[in-house]
Amino acid sequence: MAHGKVTIAVDEYSSNPTQAFTHYNINQSRFQPPHVHMVDPIPYDNPKPAGHTRFVCVSDTHSRTDGIQMPYGDVLLHTGDFTELGLPSEVKKFNDWLGGLPYEFKVVIAGNHELTFDKDFMAELVKQDYYRFPSVSKLKPEDFDNVQTLLTNCVYLQDSDVTIKGFRIYGAPW
Fold first, then answer.
1. Which end of the chain is less packed: N or C, by CB atoms within 10 Å?
2. Using one digit for the tens of pLDDT, what is the confidence trace for 96-113?
């Protein structure tokens, strides 16, 4: 640093995203902060040490939950894209799947595929041509007005938080 100016080096791969992805995908340790220490994963069926909480984090199931082998845990955190379009039938199927899971707590946050959860997006979509979302075009506003209320087997977070087992979880879908 000379005369109050900072020199920032440009990463050698900044002009070639494909090469950067390939390089950093192979050399992940470059992104590891110095205060983070890698540990060997514990087998999913190992007994949980006393005082510990196991989180199971998943996303992008896109209405394809049949046959998924879920690991043991205390808290399930599904962080979006549990449907293809957010159709009420998809949300009900997902909710039924959640109801059959053994987790003590289940927390869900919508993703960009849960179109009907975003009231502003849907208000604009109904004014437009539905060519990109033909299944959604069959819906009337009353069909999806409160689609998130179909999630009865979990805590649904939308710009809100919940504290579970001393952990504060905040969910912001979009």
1. N
2. 999 999 999 999 999 999
Cα 28–chain centre separation: 22
pLDDT > 70 fraction of the chain, expressed in percent and rounded: 79
Amino acid identity of residue 109, one-letter, is I
- Report the largest interatomic distance among the alpha carbons of the chain, rounded to a whole angstrom: 64
Burial 59-94 (b: 16+ CB within 10 A, else e): eebebebeeeeeeebbbbbbbbbbbebbbeebbebb
Question: What token pair was written down for 158?
Answer: 């939308």
CB burial of residue 141 (10 Å; 0-12, 13-18, 19+): exposed
C-alpha to C-alpha distance for 48 and 96, rounded to whole angstroms: 27
In angstroms, the first-to-last Cα distance of the chain is: 39
Full-prediction pTM beyond 0.90? no
Q: What are phi and psi of 165, to 5 degrees?
A: 50, 35
Residue with tokens 């998943």: 58
